[in-house]
């Protein structure tokens, strides 16, 4: 990706910060959303179960994106870049079964241009092995706990754990190593929202979160999508 320190035409703003995550002041109808996700349990597809990390019991269900059976990022499907893939993004066939989640995305989430939106399931006893997803220190994908069993833990590479009660939304800096262990007998459902614009509302949300956490960060601008 190419970044600029000043705004350029058609660019979106990305917050660069050393923060591992920013807690966003978003109100989420998480119980209703969890109900919608749970009702679709048999539609989830295995996620990254072929890669070398050895993740166990991790599943995904795209609501918005390339299609129901394409939960991964654009590079897994032969696209030249994220902008090309984004042209093919749309609501998937399960979106009509999730009216509360879809309505929240359309009316409450501070974006007019969604990227991938997926329910994620980590089965009881499952784990997401330690991994890094990005070379850029940008907390941008929003990870929302719809449920989070007591003994399910998000762990950073430095050994610290993240408090992640249901209803909490974090912009995640997945350039830091992270892993998740569901050492409970209950499935864990989260919603991960990517977006392809940076509305004033989004920038304000991020700036407020940064100040609240006493972190430093700066907006950089790029026409490339994250
Ligand atoms: O919460 C999840 O299911 C995914 C966690 C993860 O590895 C990520 O967001 O990059
Ligand atoms: Fe990850």
Detailed description of the structure:
- This protein has about 230 residues and is an alpha+beta fold.
- The chain has one domain: B-lactam Antibiotic, Isopenicillin N Synthase, Chain (Jelly Rolls, Sandwich).
- The protein contains four helices and 13 strands.
- Strands 2, 3, 4, 5, 6, 7, 8, 9, 10, 11 and 12 form an eleven-stranded antiparallel sheet that branches. The protein has a two-stranded antiparallel sheet with strand order 1-13.
- The relative contact order is 0.28.
- Bound molecules: 2-oxoglutaric acid and fe (ii) ion.
- Fe (ii) ion binds near residues 131, 133, 174 and 178.
Principal-axes shape call: globular
Q: What count of structural domains?
A: 1
What is the straight-line distance between the termini? 8 Å
The top level CATH class name: Mainly Beta
CATH architecture: Sandwich
Strand count, sense and barrel status of the largest sheet are: 11 strands, antiparallel
Mean pLDDT: 97
Report the count of strand segments: 13
What features would you highlight for this structure?
Jelly Rolls; alpha+beta; 16% helix; binds 2-oxoglutaric acid; 11-stranded antiparallel sheet; binds fe (ii) ion; 33% strand; two-stranded antiparallel ribbon; globular; 13 strands; single chain; 226 residues
Write a compact overview of the structure shown.
The protein has helices at residues 30-39, 82-86, 99-107, 200-212; strands spanning 12-17, 21-23, 45-46, 56-65, 90-91, 114-131, 142-145, 152-156, 161-162, 169-172, 178-182, 188-195, 217-222. The chain is α+β, with helices and mostly antiparallel strands.
């Amino acid at each position: 990706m190419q970044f600029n320190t000043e705004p350029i035409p058609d660019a979106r703003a990305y917050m660069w910060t050393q923060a591992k995550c920013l807690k966003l002041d978003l109100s989420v109808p998480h119980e209703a959303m969890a109900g919608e996700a749970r009702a679709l349990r048999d539609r989830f597809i295995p996620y990254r179960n072929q890669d070398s990390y050895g993740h166990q019991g991790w599943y995904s269900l795209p609501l918005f994106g390339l299609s129901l059976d394409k939960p991964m990022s654009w590079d897994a499907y032969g696209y030249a870049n994220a902008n090309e893939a984004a042209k093919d993004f749309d609501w998937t066939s399960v979106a009509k079964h999730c009216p509360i989640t879809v309505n929240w995305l359309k009316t409450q989430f501070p974006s007019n241009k969604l990227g991938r939106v997926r329910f994620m399931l980590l089965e009881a006893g499952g784990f997401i092995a330690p991994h890094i997803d990005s070379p850029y220190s940008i907390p941008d994908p929003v990870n929302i706990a719809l449920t989070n069993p007591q003994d399910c833990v998000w762990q950073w590479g430095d050994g610290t754990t993240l408090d992640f009660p249901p209803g909490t939304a974090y912009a995640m800096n997945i350039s830091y190593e992270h892993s998740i262990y569901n050492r409970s007998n209950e499935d864990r459902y989260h919603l991960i929202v990517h977006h392809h614009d940076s509305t004033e509302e989004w920038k304000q949300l991020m700036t407020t979160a940064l100040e609240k956490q006493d972190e430093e960060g700066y907006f950089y601008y790029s026409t490339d999508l994250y």
